Structures are given as C-alpha cells and as structure tokens.
Amino acid sequence: MPYGTLIAMPTAIVAGPLLARFTTRGVRLTPPALHDHRLAIVTPSRALSLLIVLLPVLLIAAGELGQMVPEWRGAPALVAASNPVVALLVTNLLALPVLFGRRLRDAKTQYAVWHETMEAAGTILLVIGAGGALKQVLVTAGLSDLLARLALMHAISPLLLG
C-alpha cells in the first residue's frame, strides 16, 4: 500500500491537473443538451413495491426450504425457484406490468425504461467487457506467460510489473 500510494499520488497530479493545463488550451465547454426521458407514472402501493423487492429472496428461500421436505426434493418448480437467475427473471417480468400497467406497450414508455436502465449500466458493462477483451488479448498473445517468466527469472520490481 505505501508503494502504491507513493507512485499513485505523483502520477495523479501529473496526469490530472498538470496535463489538463497543456491539453485543454483553447477548449470551451458548452452545457450539453439534456433530454428528459422520465415518465410521470402512478407509483404502486408500498406493500406491492415491498413484495416486488422481496420476491427474489422469497423465491430462492422457498426453493431451498422446499428441498428440505423429502416428498418435494428435486421437484422441477422448486429447483427453478431456487435458481437466482430465474428468480430475478420472474421478478422483473412481474415488476414491469405492476409498475407500468398497460402503458408498458407504449413506445415512449419502453424507450424511457431502456434509456434509464442502460444509462446507468451501459458504462459499467462497457468497461467490464473491454477489460475482459484486453485480458484475453494478453493471454492469447502470450504476454501473460512472458511476464510470469520474466518475474521468475529476474528480480523485477512489482511496481514495474504493475
């Protein structure tokens, strides 16, 4: 940790404010044009909202508890209910009609739902995907094996390897 801090602090200073002084000369920022994609919807009751939030937990718990009953062990419905992916899928399929009702078929509503969900998750998914692709390129190219052999053969600083 001390080595990382020792390297990270000057790097952040140089790569941040100092570099910005040289690279942003003459750049004028204008406020972006914002589009409001939010919908005015009637919110469901608190009890229904709480049920939707707790539904995956209840499905997984019911599936696991149902496996303890000898007659029900291995029942396909219980096995499916205890699967977290299935529990979340069922919850989403129930939550959308509860929240939007018949307006879910409206194109404007679908656009707003997709826009709001992808705006938050899109960047995260992009970074994770790019990191995975970079890892695979390094492994396929043999760079990871090369670095491992170099680290074993020579006394190379972990900071330099990082």
From TrEMBL:
Pfam entry (one): GntP_permease
Highest taxon of the lineage: Bacteria
GO terms under cellular component: plasma membrane
Keywords: Cell membrane, Membrane, Transmembrane, Transmembrane helix, Transport
Protein topology in the membrane: Multi-pass membrane protein
Segments crossing the lipid bilayer: 44-65, 77-100, 120-143
Subcellular location: Cell membrane
GO MF annotations in UniProt: gluconate transmembrane transporter activity
Family to which the UniProt record says this protein belongs: Belongs to the GntP permease family.
Name the UniProt record assigns to this protein: H+/gluconate symporter-like permease
Taxonomic source organism: Sphingomonas xinjiangensis
Lineage, opening ranks: Bacteria, Pseudomonadati, Pseudomonadota, Alphaproteobacteria, Sphingomonadales
